[in-house]
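Trying the structure run again after the queue cleared.
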Amino acid sequence: MIARTIKLVAAGFLAGVTLVGAADACSRATVAGAEAPIRPEARIDQAVVDAAILAELNYHRCKAGLPALSDAQGLRKVAGRHAKWMASARVLSHQSQTPGQATTLARIRASGVRFRAGSENIGQIARFQIDGKSFRIADAASCGFLGGDGQVIPPHSYSTLARTIVAYWMASADHRRNILDRKVTRVGSGIGFDGKAPYCGNYYVSQSFAG
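Done. Tokens:
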């Protein structure tokens, strides 16, 4: 996982105070279609990807006593394009060879969103829910995986992908800093699929913040 922050204004230290019990009132927004398994061989619904990840981000921001982020279609488009580029190039990087969108700053500018501060999170996870788990291959041809308990390991749904990637980001200081940044107000996320990766493929995830 890699994080990148663009500092366009003077940065100051901002301390937050969360009232006792405030985090208990936080809940994840329901996203229509998010429980469906992602089917990269058909069509990935980038709007549902974006909404599911946004719901997860805002859940963690609520727990930290921060205002919710709003979605931005322009940010979603540039994030999605970068995620697809990474999947095609099979590399996790904030740099790309996409004309006009080769850097984090260039992508946020290309989104059309007005901003004074911006950042980007990227990451990579398996198509099936095997990350961080002990598993064995039951049938490689049909992508059959079994956990240590013998249970079938399913592919990610939009919801489980969002929860997994955001959990990884929240466990990393740099990524968490971008998610909990008080200066950003809007975000867009997208994914790309690498079907040539081991274990039936990987998703590359990109996320652009602006404020």
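The chain has a mean pLDDT of 91. Worth checking whether this holds up in the mutant runs.
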